[in-house]
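wait is this the right file?? whatever heres the structure
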């Protein structure tokens, strides 16, 4: 299926806001680096910048037909994801003076593609500083550890950009909101009609609730998160673990382009685990 153009997808997003009963208008500002749209539900206003993560065209261009190219991708970090988040915040900041009360949202489309389909996981990792932790308590047998995500285990974009109130994440399977609990307007956003709509569909990620429920661990933010030993020591002290390991989760896959299936057919063998797939 051909990829949607950016303008086509932006139209879809505007129509989605309208389907939620909101009015949508173009953004008025002298800056060319303005965000994509302004929406209002009668109570809250939203400034929205839309970003997509698609297949890298250079990757396809350099891939020879009928050859196999291995891929190793981190599931929690990506420099292009970081760059797009920073660019979105810049555009929202330039627009915000004309709409000082508006909540600022990044709308992220993890468009299907060979190098983009794990960008949803990478976005979680970059925004929340999530890292996968395997932790053991005293007396627990080997192989009987707890595997949980740890919030703020690495520097987080939501920390760096507290003015970014949240992210709407659209991937192949869902539409969800990632809330920035460090925003000064987090409570305002939680109470907004938009957030309540997602909450009713169990599609609102609130890190405060994830930690409170025990689904996520949380590293204290005064800890130097660039020092893995300090992060592990904090989790051991805070949660009473005996041993903590931070797992570098990666996806190993192999990609080939086969001519003769229409213009081209793409076969992608993948494994979303911490080790390469076994043979067979």
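ok assuming it is, sequence goes like this
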């Amino acid at each position: 299926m051909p990829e949607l153009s950016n303008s086509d997808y932006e139209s879809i997003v505007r129509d989605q806001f309208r389907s939620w009963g909101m009015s949508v208008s173009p953004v008025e500002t002298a800056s060319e680096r303005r965000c994509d749209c302004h929406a209002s539900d009668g109570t809250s206003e939203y400034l929205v910048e839309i970003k997509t993560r698609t297949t890298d065209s250079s990757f396809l261009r350099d891939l020879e037909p009928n050859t196999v190219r291995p891929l190793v991708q981190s599931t929690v970090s990506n420099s292009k994801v970081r760059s797009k988040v920073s660019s979105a915040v810049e555009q929202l900041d330039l627009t915000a003076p004309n709409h000082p009360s508006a909540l600022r949202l990044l709308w992220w489309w993890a468009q299907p593609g060979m190098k983009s389909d794990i960008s949803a996981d990478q976005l979680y990792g970059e925004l929340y500083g999530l890292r996968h932790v395997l932790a053991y308590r005293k007396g627990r047998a080997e192989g009987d550890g707890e595997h949980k995500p740890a919030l703020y285990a690495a520097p987080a974009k939501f920390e760096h950009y507290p003015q970014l109130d949240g992210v709407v994440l659209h991937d192949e399977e869902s539409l969800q909101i990632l809330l920035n609990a460090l925003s000064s307007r987090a409570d305002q956003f939680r109470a907004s009609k938009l957030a309540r709509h997602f909450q009713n569909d169990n599609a609102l990620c609130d890190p405060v609730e994830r930690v409170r429920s025990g689904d996520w661990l949380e590293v204290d933010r005064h800890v130097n998160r660039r020092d893995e030993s300090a992060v592990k020591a904090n989790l051991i002290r805070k949660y009473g673990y005996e041993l903590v390991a931070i797992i570098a989760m990666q996806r190993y896959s192999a990609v080939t382009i086969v001519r003769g299936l229409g213009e081209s057919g793409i076969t992608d063998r993948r494994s979303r685990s911490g080790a390469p797939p076994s043979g067979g």
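DSSP finds nine helices and 14 strands in the chain. so i think its the right one actually
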